[in-house]
Amino acid sequence: MVKSISRTEKRTRGRPATNPTSIHLTLAPRPLAEVDRWIENKEPVLTRPAAIRRLVELGLTVKTPMRPGSKPGRRLRAQELATNAIEKIIDPAAPPEERAQRRRRLTKGPPEFREARLDQPKAKEK
């Protein structure tokens, strides 16, 4: 009798064994349409899941600044507006030095809150 050929490796059917984490995602029509538009511009046409995986990878590799930068004139404009509002509140009968001191104290804020402000540089400790 002739012996049959035995296989040493097991054949598997279907997808190869991997360990991905499955995440179910629901998108509103507008973002979904934007994903579809992005897919259309890619040369090897991607499936939606593959496109979303690629977009997530791209989003994670982009370096973004820690804080959004502000426009240069915004701080000066805000200070101007605050000064104008404070001028209306301050007693006009007070001497000019007193008014300047009050204005400065109000625009800087109370000392206990100055440490918590993110838009101001930290005071150097002595």
Describe this protein's structure:
The protein is mainly α and 126 residues long. 48% of the residues lie in helices and 0% in strands. It is built from 5 helices and no strands. It has helices at 29-40, 48-61, 72-89, 96-108, 111-114. The chain is elongated, with a radius of gyration of 32 Å. The model has no long low-confidence stretch (mean pLDDT 79).
> What structural class do the secondary elements suggest?
mainly alpha
Give the topology string: H per helix, E per strand: HHHHH
The overall pLDDT, averaged over residues, is 79
Strand content: under 5%
- The coarse overall form would be elongated
- N- to C-terminal distance: 97 Å
Count the beta strands: 0
> How many individual helices?
5
Radius of gyration over all CA atoms, rounded = 32 Å
Q: Outline the biggest β-sheet.
A: none
Low-confidence stretches: none
Helix content: 40-55%
Which structural traits does this protein have?
elongated, mainly alpha, 126 residues
Short description:
The chain has 126 residues and is mostly helical. It has five helices and no strands.
Helices and strands in order, then pairings?
Elements: H1 29-40, H2 48-61, H3 72-89, H4 96-108, H5 111-114
